[in-house]
Automatic annotation (TrEMBL):
It holds the Pfam family HTH_8. The keyword DNA-binding applies. The keyword rRNA processing does not apply. This is DNA-binding NtrC family response regulator. GO terms for molecular function: sequence-specific DNA binding. SUPFAM superfamilies: Homeodomain-like. Residues 25-64 form the DNA binding HTH domain. Keywords: DNA-binding.
Amino acid sequence: MSNATPRELPPTLPAALALVGQPMAVVERELILATLVHCNGNRTHAARMLGISIRTLRNKLADYTAAGFAVPEAGSGIARNAPA
């Protein structure tokens, strides 16, 4: 029998488990979009939280919009649909 004590699981584990097995691009996109919603669409704040430049964030958001993903509008936190 092992002397190891059971390790406590972080409270965020259920959210992380939803991303297990997903490609890194999907995980990155979900994290970026969720952070942007958390920041009410504030790109500067979201970029700082994510540890990336505002330019990188804007480029990724442009790619997501072009791919048809809903991206929160700047300053609103409300997702808008990609242009048709």
